[in-house]
Amino acid sequence: MARGRNADVIRLGGPNTKSRNLRSIAAGCGAGAALLLLAGCALIPKSTAPSVPVSDGPVAPAGPTAALTGVTLGPNVSSLGMSRDDANSALASFVESCPAMLRREDTSGLFDYDDWFRVCRIANEWPTLDGPEFFDDHFETARVGDGTAFATGYFEPQIAGSRTRRPGFEVPVYAMPDDLVRAWPADTPQSERSGRPPLGRYDASGNFELYPDRAAIEAGALDGRVPVIAWAADPVEFFFLQIQGSGRLITPEGDVIRIGYAGQNGRGYTGIGGVMRERGLLGDGPGQYPGSMQGIMAYIRENPRDGADLMRLNKSWIFFRELTGDGPLGAMSVPVRRESSVAADPAFVPLGAPVWLDMDRGEADGLWIAQDTGGAIKGANRFDTFWGAGADAREIAGGMSARGNALLLLPKGTTQRLNSGQ
Known about the structure:
Strand order of the largest sheet: 3-16-13-15-14-17
Largest sheet: 6 strands, mixed, barrel
Distance between the termini: 34 Å
Radius of gyration: 22 Å
Number of helices: 11
Helix content: 10-25%
Strand content: 15-25%
C-alpha cells in the first residue's frame, strides 16, 4: 500500500494456506464470464492517449534497475506447475491492474508499452478459468540478477477506534496536512539541489523547516492544525497499522472505518526489528523475543518505556484517508487481494507484472501480481506478500520470512529484446 512497512520479521510460522479461489472483482475492471472493459477502465492505445505519461524504458534511473542488473531467460511457464486456482486468481488481479499499469511511468527498464498493451488486451478477452493457458501462451519467465529472493508479509490490521475522541480513544488518526509541501531550505546551496526537495512546511516567519517527526507529533505538534479522521485506542496497534499502511478501525458500536495511506511526513523509516536484533533483543536465546511482529509487539508491551522510545526511532509518520469500496488500495490505486497481491520495488519489477515465487515457506509459493510498493521493500527480488484481514492474516504476515527464488513473467520476446539492445 505504498508504505514503509516493517519487514524485519525473521520467525517462521503459520499454516500453509496457499490455495486460492477465483473471486469476482466488484470494483475497478470487473471479472465475470468474460473479463470485460468497463467505463473508466478501458485500455487506451498509446497513440490515442497523449496526456497519459507512459514510458517504454527507464525514466532517468537514480540507481540500479532490473535492466541494469541484468535479466536472463528462465524456464518455460508450463514447467512451473502452477495450479489452476492460483493462475485464475492471478489472471483476475492482472486484468484489474492493466489500465493502471499502462498509465504508469516505468523505472525498471523492462516495460515495452506495445508488448504489455497486447497481453492486457488478450487478458480482457480470456476465459476466466483458463489462467494457466493464458500465462503459458503469452509470457516467458525471466530472472533479475541471480533470482535469489526474500519475501515478508503484510496484512490489513483491525484495531479499536472511534469517530470522536472519548475516554480510551486518544490516539489521533491524522488526515493529510494542507501545509505539507516540498521545498528547499533557504540555506541549501544550489549545487546540492538535486533530486526531489525534502518534505516540510513553512513556519510563521516564512522559513522552510522539516515536518515534525514521530516524537514531536506524539507530543502534540499537530494538535489543532491537521484534520483528524478518527481516534485509535491503542498506540502500539496504531504504530503497526501505520507500518502496514492501511487498516480498519472498529468502533465500540460495531461500525467499521477503513483507512488507507494518504502521505508521509518526509522523515526516514527505521525498521525497529532491525534495531532490536542489533541490541540482542530478538532471537531464540534466553530472555530474547521471537523475531516476528508478534514478538516485537510483546517486547514493547512488556517494556512500555523502552518500547515507546524504540517506536520513536522510526521518525516516519503516516497520514491517512478514509476508504470506501472494495479492498485496501495499493500503489497502483487498485485493490490488493489476499494471496494474489505482492509489493515489490518498481525499479526491478514493473507494477502490474506477474511474479512467480518458489520459497522455503509454502504459503508464499505461487503466482502473484506486483501491485504495491513499500518503504522497506527495496532491491531486486525483494517482495512483501499480502494476506488480507483477520486473525490468520495477522499470524501469517507477522511471521512471514521466506527465502528462495523469484521469476518475473514478461511478455514473450522481452528477454531477447533486452539482451539484443533493441
